[in-house]
Amino acid sequence: MKYSIKIMFLALLGSVNVSIAQPLNKLNVGFEELQDSLGTSGVRNGSRGNATYNFSQGEFNLHLDTDWDTSFGGYWAGGWALSNLKYTTEETSDFSKHLYASKPGKGSEESGNVYAVGTDGSYIQNKDPLNQSLAGCYISNSTYAYNSMKLGDNFAKKFESNDSFALIVDFYLSGKEVGSQKVWLADYRSASADDHFILDTWQWVTFQYANADSIVFLFESSDMGDWGINTPKYFCLDEVQLVSGAEIEESLDPLNIGVYPIPFKEFIQIDTKEEIENIQLLDLSGKAQPISLENNKRLKTSMISSGAYILTVLTKDGRMHHQKVWK
C-alpha cells in the first residue's frame, strides 16, 4: 500500500505521484515466544547460558543482553531477565520471591504473560538505526520495588510526602549521548495526596529520541543512603515498538543529484544542475526538521540532532528526489 509523504510543500506537487514504497511498518516485541521455554521456573536470567535475547523478523531486529555472574554460586548481575511470574500480593518485599515479578501480574498485552525485568544499567541495542527506530515501550514497577516503596523494608523507606522514584532513559548514537527523558515510577511530591502514586499498571512511554542505536536505563530516587539509592533498582518492560525505516521510490525519472558529506555535520551540500523549488529534511516518522538554507543548494544543519533522516528535494519542474542521510 502506498501513501503520499506529508511534507509542508505538498500543495506544490500537483499531480506528481510521490510515494513511499513501504509504509513505516510497526512491530511490538513482547517476548511471548518464550512462554513455553520459561518452564516451571518462569524466569530466564542467564543461569542456563541464555546470555542474550535476539529477535529477528523480516526487517525488524532487537537485541538485549543478560549479565550472569558465576561468582558465589551464580546470580543475575545486570542486563535483562525474561519472566512470566505473577506475584502481585502487597506484602513485605521479598528478594527471592518478588525480584522477577511485574506488579501488574502479567505482560502488557491483553493476553500476554512474558515481560522483561531490567535493573540499573540495562540497555537495548538497535543494530540498524538507519533502517529501524525504537519508538517506545510499556513500563511498570516490579513487585519487589513496588512493595518496598509501599510498605518499606529492611533497606528502603516507606514512601511518604516529597518522595519519588524515576527511571532515567538515556539515548546514545555512535557512543555519544544524544538525549534523555524521565519516567516516574512513583511520585509523592505533590501537595495533594490524591496525586500521589506508585505505578502498578503498564504505562506506555514514547521514546523522544527514536533514532538512537542504544538506550540505557538508570534510576533516580529520593531515598538515598551511604551506598547510593536504597529503593530497589528494578523495573519491568514490555512490547518494545520497532518502526522500520521507509524505502523511498520515485515514480518519475531519477534526478542527477549529488548529496555530501554523508554522514553530515554542520551542513548538507546539494550538487545538481536542476533548478530547486524547495528542500526538506524529514525524520523517519515524516516530521520536517528545522533546517535553514544558506543558499539554494546548501543546508545549515548544526541544530539537527544525530540520527537518520530523509532528504527530499523538489525541483522547479515538479520532480522529486529522496535520499536517506544521517548525522
Query: Quick one: overall form?
Result: elongated
Give the mean pLDDT: 85
Question: What's the main sheet like?
Answer: 14 strands, antiparallel
Order of helices and strands: EEHEEEEHEEEHEEEEEEEEEEEEEEEE
Count of folded domains: 2
Query: How far is the first residue's CA from the last residue's CA?
Result: 30 Å
Q: Identify the CATH architecture of the largest domain.
A: Sandwich
Q: Strand fraction band?
A: 35-45%
Uncertain segments are: 1-22, 246-253
Q: How many E-type strands?
A: 25
Helix content: under 10%
C-alpha Rg, in Å?
Answer: 24 Å
Please count the helical segments: 3
The secondary structure category is mainly beta
Question: Helices, strands, pairings?
Answer:
Elements: E1 18-20, E2 26-29, H1 35-38, E3 43-44, E4 52-57, E5 60-69, E6 75-83, H2 95-98, E7 115-119, E8 123-125, E9 132-141, H3 143-151, E10 164-173, E11 176-187, E12 197-198, E13 203-206, E14 214-221, E15 224-225, E16 228-229, E17 234-244, E18 248-250, E19 258-260, E20 267-271, E21 276-283, E22 292-295, E23 298-300, E24 308-315, E25 320-326
Antiparallel strand pairs: 1-18, 2-17, 3-6, 4-5, 5-6, 5-8, 6-7, 7-17, 8-14, 9-13, 9-17, 10-11, 10-14, 11-12, 15-16, 19-20, 20-23, 21-24, 22-23, 24-25
Describe this structure in words.
The protein has helices at residues 35-38, 95-98, 143-151, and strands spanning 18-20, 26-29, 43-44, 52-57, 60-69, 75-83, 115-119, 123-125, 132-141, 164-173, 176-187, 197-198, 203-206, 214-221, 224-225, 228-229, 234-244, 248-250, 258-260, 267-271, 276-283, 292-295, 298-300, 308-315, 320-326. The chain has 327 residues and is mainly beta. The chain has 2 domains: 10-19 and 249-326, Immunoglobulin-like (Sandwich), CATH 2.60.40; 26-244, Sandwich (Jelly Rolls). The strands form 5 sheets. Strands 2, 3, 4, 5, 6, 7, 8, 9, 10, 11, 12, 13, 14 and 17 form a 14-stranded antiparallel beta sheet that branches. Strands 19-20-23-22 form a 4-stranded antiparallel beta sheet, with no helix packed on it. Strand 10 (164-173) and strand 11 (176-187) form a beta hairpin. The longest helix has 9 residues, at 143-151. It is elongated, with a radius of gyration of 24 Å.
